[in-house]
Write a structure and sequence with these properties.
The protein is built from nine helices and ten strands. The chain has helices at about 15-25, 80-85, 90-95, 115-125, 180-190, 215-230, 235-250, 260-270, 275-290; strands at about 30-35, 40, 95-100, 105-110, 130, 135-140, 150, 155-160, 165, 175. β1 and β2 form a beta hairpin.
Length: about 290
């Protein structure tokens, strides 16, 4: 009697870039996939092919109205459930590289794009961990700051609200972010320094006394919201939106929020790299979702 031929089931192998991304994320560094050309994917229909206006070539979110950011530095995460999710699976199958959000990991990358820039760094900056790139080197420091391009010939600074291609762990001991790098950014772009004060936006004022919340409860809630934003290490844009949504859900209809409360939330968000426009958009989107 002929024996039945056993059916061999071959497990589908995971894309190598996915395994690399998971390893980087496990070290506390938020990651995202890059498509050809070193640009992020638009992984929702509204943002595909730059339809939402991401700039430039979707390197940062545009007027995205998704409940969560779906591309650019704001989508970087350390959450393995997100990284291996069905939403991200198609991207990993065609991804060309893994990128990371340096600011989300509390890091700053000095991107040296040619040998002349590398020579300048060796003469000017304290030694730190270095990673070779196609044309130059990445110098990585502990500490986050505002990202600025073209601070001098062949030198970009990538930290908050930016991403860098993951090229390995590099060599050398990572040093603290030196004042020379911060000064270079300020010196070369004095007109675009982010304000440390939030933009004043109209607080909701339904009128009347807030009968279901005490002033102490409100103060504690605002303080907790500030802390939640401050503690975010990945998906900062989404955290800001969810925090605004939570605050408005609790206090948005009773008139107890003041401009000062809203300003404190905006200030916390801007300290994490959010722009005033992103803060205003997130606040507006939260109000719209709640029908306020």
């Amino acid at each position: 009697m002929t024996q039945p031929i056993p059916i061999l089931r071959v497990a589908a192998s995971r894309p190598p870039l996915l395994d690399r991304a998971l390893a980087v994320a496990a070290a506390g560094v938020p990651v995202l996939p890059l498509r050809q050309g070193k640009v992020p994917f638009g992984n929702c229909p509204a943002c595909a092919d730059g339809a939402c206006g991401g700039r430039p070539h979707m390197k940062s979110p545009g007027t995205c109205r998704c409940p969560r950011p779906c591309h650019g530095w704001a989508a970087a995460t350390t959450d393995p459930d997100v990284i291996t999710s069905d939403d991200w699976a198609p991207m990993w199958r065609t991804a060309a590289a893994v990128a990371y959000h340096p600011g989300g990991a509390g890091l700053t990358v000095v991107d040296l794009d040619d040998p002349q820039a590398v020579a300048w760094a060796r003469e000017t900056l304290p030694p730190t961990r270095t990673v070779p790139t196609t044309r130059g080197e990445h110098w990585i420091y502990r500490g986050a700051m505002r990202s600025v391009n073209a601070v001098r010939d062949g030198v970009d600074i990538k930290s908050t609200m930016a991403y860098a291609r993951w090229r390995g762990h590099g060599t050398g001991t990572m040093a603290a972010l030196p004042a020379a790098v911060r000064t270079l950014a300020v010196k070369n772009t004095p007109t675009v320094q982010p304000t440390q004060h939030a933009v004043t936006v109209p607080a909701l004022a339904a009128g009347g006394e807030c009968r279901h919340r005490t002033p102490i409860y409100l103060e504690r809630g605002i303080a907790m919201a500030e802390q939640r934003i401050t503690d975010a290490r990945s998906q900062v844009h989404a955290t800001v939106y969810r925090t605004f949504l939570a605050v408005l859900s609790a206090h948005g209809r009773c008139g107890c929020l003041t401009d000062n409360h809203v300003a404190r939330l905006f200030t916390a968000a801007q300290a994490k790299g959010e722009t005033a426009r992103h803060c205003t958009d997130a606040w507006t989107n939260a109000r719209t979702r709640l029908g306020l």
